Amino acid sequence: EMRKLVQGGGVSLNKEKLAAFDRVVTAEDLIDGKYLLVQRGKKNYYLITVKNTKNWAAKRNFMTFAATLSY
Known about the structure:
The chain is of the alpha+beta class and 71 residues long. The protein is 23% helix and 30% strand. It contains 3 helices and 6 strands, in the order αβββββαβα. It has helices spanning 2-7, 53-58, 65-68; strands at residues 11-13, 16-17, 24-25, 35-40, 44-49, 63-64. It has a 4-stranded antiparallel β-sheet with strand order 2-1-4-5. The protein has a two-stranded antiparallel ribbon with strand order 3-6. Mean pLDDT is 77; it is low at 57-68.
């Protein structure tokens, strides 16, 4: 389902459309060092708060976007 949404332009990360469904989210994608704004469709917005961002950025502990977006 995620693949279909992304291919149809239905998923945005920080107001930018995703080009690949398996895009990797890095520390550079965080807003103010701790937030991700995800949009699925026209009306479904999710504000994801990343806790312990200091260790996350320091260890280069990356997560895949597909695992982040849950329904």
